[in-house]
Amino acid sequence: MEIVPLREFRNQLPGLSHDERNLILQQARMVLEQNYVHLADKRKRTGFDPVAACELLRTEVATRDASDSSAAAELAFHETLLDVFRRIRDRHTSYLLPEPLATATAFLPFTVDIAADKGTEVATVTKVLPTSDARGGFVPGIQVTHWNGVPIDRLLSLNLVEEMRSPSARFSSRDLTVRPLRTVAPPAEDWVIVSYISRRGARREARFEWQVLTGETASAPGTFVKNVAAAIDPHARATEVCAASIGVHWSPLGLDGPPSSSRATVIASNFGEVGHLFVPTFITSTPLEFVRELQSALEQLPAEGLIVDVRGNTGGSLPAAVGLAQLLSTDPLPLILSQIRATSKNLDLCRIFVEAFGDSDLERTLPELRKAISLDAEFTPVQPLGRRIVSNVDRPYPGPVIVVFDGFSYSATDVFAALVQDQEIGPTLSTRGPTGGGGANVWSHDLFCELSTLSGSGLGYEPLPRRASFTVAMRRLYRPASRRSGGEPVPIEDHGVVPDEAHSSTRKDLLEAYPDLLNAAAARLDRQ
Question: What pTM did the predictor assign?
Answer without folding.
Answer: 0.90
